Amino acid sequence: MQFLAFENDTGIVDTTFFPVTYRRFCLMLDRYLLEGKVEADWGAVTLTVNRAWEMARLSCRVNGIAV
Fold this sequence. Notes:
Blueprint: E1 2-8, E2 11-17, H1 19-25, E3 32-41, E4 44-54, E5 61-62, E6 65-66
Parallel strand pairs: 2-4
Antiparallel strand pairs: 1-2, 3-4, 5-6
């Protein structure tokens, strides 16, 4: 397992990657949107990552229009 922290303007998120997921995404973590299970234990919030999407491939739609 790997434990990584991600930080942005709103704060820090601690993440847990199990071996298969880490091997799949470790070289691309700076450009991905992460999905997983959020857990709070002993005052610490962590994200156990299950999937990741490359940010360049995502599109945002506002009123049905891609932006």
